[in-house]
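Re-running Adenosylcobinamide-GDP ribazoletransferase to confirm reproducibility after the cluster update. Everything else is unchanged from the original entry.
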Amino acid sequence: MKREIRILFTALMFFTRLPCPKWTDHDPVYLKESGRYFSLIGWIVGAISAGVFLVSNLLFSIEISAVLSIAASIGLTGAFHEDALADVGDGFGGGWTKEKIILIMKDPRLGTFGVLTIMLVVLLKIFALADMPVHQIPLVILSGHVLSRLVVSRMLARGNYISNHTNSKSETAASKLSTRSLLINFIIGLSILCFFKNWWVFLTLLPMFITEALLYRYYKKWIGGYNGDCIGAVQQITELVFYLSVLMLWKFI
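Result of re-run:
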């Protein structure tokens, strides 16, 4: 039990900026297993983001509340996944060989492709949320964070991580997920669907997992696998796919 608590707080420290006990550190032994709690991190970040939307919407419009909610999630994670998405936009947008793509992604500077990628994804999130019934938005925000991280765990379970041989913390945290850890993510992640009254919400998982499969195939084609930036991009893109899928289902079901 103590070991699992240590792993959980290691995940919380690595993936968020929330305060953790002083004894929590980035011990590679625990960091390597922290991926089993991706979905739970989604619950935490998503719940706070949804709470920010609820409070903000008492004073502001849906659009402003959606922006504040997204800003809260960015602050909670230190733009961890957004930065990864921008790096992927730059790398795959400006590179034409494996070596060039990885080199660009490692560059701390942000290029045109990265800026446009992050702008488009964030704007689409805002407009998608603003187009939903206001009473459903908090649950949708929470679910987007939970389910997108569940999808990330599926990619990690595939393996094929591209090592840069720097022994970085990101490399340790992105190691291949065990079947047990994947199962834990699925149990924690899918539990969010119990809060929806309609069965159709399960259909949103299909486009999310298809997106993950296509991105994995794309990464593997160009660089032979994935790295930490690729994983963060999957979280951001599948979160957006969830919001868009919910919108489509509301219109046609």
